[in-house]
Amino acid sequence: MDGTNQSTVSEFVFLGLTNNWQIQLLLFVCSSIIYVASMMGNSLIMLTVTSDHHLHSPMYFLLANLSFIDMGLSSATSPKMIYDLFRKHKVISFNGCITQIFFIHLIGGVEMVLLIAMAFDRYVAICKPLHYLTIMNSRKCIFFVVVAWMLGVIHSLAQLALVLKLPFCGPNVLDSFYCDLPRFIKLACTDTYQLEFMVTANSGFISLGSFFILIVSYIFILITVQKRSSGASSKAFSTLSTHVIVVTLFFGPCIFVYTWPHSTSHLDKFLTLFDAVLTPFLNSVIYTLRNKDMRVSMRKVCRQFIIYRRIS
Question: Could you read off the pLDDT of 227-249 as tens digits, one per residue?
Fold first, then answer.
């Protein structure tokens, strides 16, 4: 690389998920329904947390921000994937591909930090309940969100800095349904071994390290609570199990795609489809179905909306 972009490729072609029209139809219906449900569910969470003063607490503030990020995660890849399902020529411009990579890693970085912040919030609430409102005040919550966005931007720009100067002179076919960084780098007309290692270190090892830290922190919380009382331990396990499910759904595909040395194309596609389409929807479902206060507040908001519509 000589520091200048020698690209002659102006667009990239996606091979997509499948060429079987029956599977395409099934994916179109399911993905469209899940995407709409994910956007509506996460919007409802944000609206409920904002409108119900009983939910004006650090935990729900962070949850509302997570819902906002999940909406971005869905929108970064799902609409384009759904639109391309029945197109024979699935293309994206060079700049569009770079933009998609930027937002995917931005959102991924922000969500990673938010999940860590939510784990810290649960640690304080369960292990230091008397000091909870002092430690997890509004200033601390805003600080977590600002740091999450700052680190997300830095992470995404660091990824792009590695690839923007790469020369692309062909081929331009991506065996995927969106611009994922590992396959994008392999299309460059130069030796990319070192870059692939740096991307793995940046995304894969950070994801693996963050996942390990989160799981260890949850285990530490449970051990701490179990020493106090069995009743508190049972309640803590119920609360933390929700977080563990969400963390596993988010980090699992990321860790596999970026760190597994012999991953296959079909398995990668399935995991990325799961991460991009299903995970944002499941996050909203998990947090609402397993949280009594959220369910009650959502029903209240829905009733108020129905009454308002009838009056108007």
Answer: 766 555 666 676 777 778 888 88
